[in-house]
Amino acid sequence: MTTKMPSLYSTTMTGKMPSLYLSTINPHFSIISLKKKSFPVTGSRNLCTTTAHASRFEVDRQISRSQGHEEESLSLMRSVLGSMERVYLKRNPTAKATLDLVKSVDDADHVCYDHLAFRTFGVKGHGIESMASFFLDYGYKQQEELRFPAKKLKALWFSPPSGLPHEDAATGSGVNGPLPRIFISELLVDQLSPQAQEIIEKYIETSGSGYKHATLASALGSLTWKKPLFSDFQQLAKESEYAAWTLVNGYALNHVTISTHRLKTHLTNIRALNQFLQENEFKLNSEGGVLKVSPDGLLLQSSTVADSISFKFSDGFTESVPCSYIEFAERLVLPQHKNLRKEEVKEFHRRDGFEVGNADKIFESTSKEQLTRRTG
User: Fold this and answer.
1) Per the record's keyword annotation, is Calcium included, yes or no (predicted)?
2) Which of 81, 192, 327, 362 minimizes the number of CB atoms within 10 Å of its CB?
3) Residues in Cβ contact with 163 at an 8 Å cutoff, skipping those fewer than 6 apart
4) What is the DSSP letter of 15?
5) How far apart, in whole angstroms, are the C-alpha atoms of residue 103 and residue 96?
6) Read out DSSP for 229-294?
């Protein structure tokens, strides 16, 4: 499928961001709200030691205030994630159609996200840290690093804040459900050819301090560097399709991942979901097989092939470029918890983290080989 969304690229972002942009996220928040600022996302654990003579009323008042800050912080974070999600769904009709289809046959309130993923250029502050800083400020915790030598990539994933109902108590779907893990990868630019490095650094220079606004750029569907030349896109694509994708998509959501084991129908089994999608003529990533399975057999993943979007380059060429896709993940119960009854199983009883082998194949969802592959 191809859709035309030139307006998403009509504005590049450098330096200070006009406050009017925030109206597309939430009209009640100012630009100052999005500057890095730590909020108490897990409540205060030492309120009673503030003073030995604190009255019960004062302690209760402080607890109430802390909880209010927590709710405000969580509300703002969900609002930003919601804007990222809206841009993603508007640009990627396959992702929207997939979500709508799954919701139509399952419980729409339990179509939750396992993780959100972003791509970055690992140069001059524009790498993982540019996007991670927002999530770290809101209580996310850095976890393992993954390396992909052949693709010249590395990635980090971040777990949701502790002390919040992000695992099992939250209700709602998508970004309004249990808080998702965050997966951020970066291209190791210094390992590319001198020519590719020169192209990337040329655009990074036009971005200036744009990396400080990575989250805002993602929420608005804007690039932080100038619109590229088609010849530069072509040159990067020859060496790194990841680089070419990032050049035209910037900090946009690369994919969201449906947590299949949270579904309520037979689609909770990822094999059944894959079959259901293929029967409905959705094209799935076939790299290494449609189903990607971790060595321990406990993490099962699959994905659609990315949509394409019509992109007008700065030299006047309008060409189809890869956009984003949607992924599916089933996390099985860990062996030590296998005797739990189904109703007793919580998210922390399941396999956590990511797997290099699986992720390496999922990256191919935006590759030319997958986009041009015939169905079947």
Assistant:
1) no
2) 192
3) 41, 42, 43, 139
4) S
5) 11
6) PHHHHHHHHHH-HHHHHHHHHTTS--EEEEEGGG-SSGGGSHHHHHHHHHHTTPPBP-TT-SSEE-
Q: Residues of the chain whose pLDDT is less than 50?
A: 1-67, 165-169
Predicted confidence at residue 107, as pLDDT, reads: 86
Which amino acid belongs to residue 115? H
- Give residues with Cβ within 8 angstroms of 316, minimum separation 6: none
For residue 147, give the DSSP letter.
E
Spatial contact of 200 and 235, defined as CB atoms under 8 Å apart: no
How far apart CA 187 and CA 153 sit, in angstroms, is: 5
Return the structure tokens found at 275.
């079959």
Distance (Å, whole) CA 77 – CA 349 = 26
Among positive and negative, which fits the CA dihedral 358, 360, 361, 363? positive
Beta-strand relationship, 181-187 and 153-159: antiparallel
Question: What angle (nearest 5°) sits at the alpha carbon of residue 141, between those of residues 136 and 147?
Answer: 100
Q: What 3-state DSSP class applies to 51? A: coil
* Element holding 159 (H helix, E strand): strand 153-159
pLDDT digits (tens, 9 = 90+) for 237-251: 999 999 999 999 999
Q: Which amino acid is at 125?
A: G
Give residues with Cβ within 8 angstroms of 29, minimum separation 6.
22, 76, 79
Q: For CA atoms 46, 49, 51, 52, give the dihedral sign.
A: positive
- Rounded to whole angstroms, the Cα distance separating 166 from 153 reads 29
Name 345's Cβ contacts closer than 8 Å, sequence gap at least 6.
333, 337
| φ/ψ of residue 104, rounded to 5 | -70, -25
Q: Which of 279, 233, 273 is nearest to 257 (CA)?
A: 273
Q: What is the DSSP letter of 225?
A: S
Global confidence as pTM = 0.83
Name the nearest CA neighbour of 291 among 305, 271, 275: 271
What is the side-by-side order of every strand in the sheet holding 318-322?
2-4, 308-312, 318-322
Handedness of CA 162, 330, 291, 117 (dihedral sign): negative
